[in-house]
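This section describes the prediction task in plain terms. A model, or a person checking by hand, is given the sequence of a single protein chain and must write out its three-dimensional structure as a string of tokens. No templates, partner chains or ligands are provided. The sample shown here is typical of the held-out split.
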Amino acid sequence: MQQSNFAAFAVDPGAIRSCLRRFTFIWLENGRSFWFFPTFVGRTSVAGWRWRGNRWVFYGTDLNRISSFQCV
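The expected answer:
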């Protein structure tokens, strides 16, 4: 079994800041994905409203848990 050499990088706060107050689709490192409406971006975290099936709930996560994102 080969071991790959890779480094995990956090999402850049400057990049996701452009998605503030915009509907954003988030893909996490653990494979989960969801709609998100960010209202705060810090140096290492993001917070806002996450769609949970039938309602919006407040949610926050570390930027290093986000694999990728796309805002509309």
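For orientation: The chain has one domain: 19-71.
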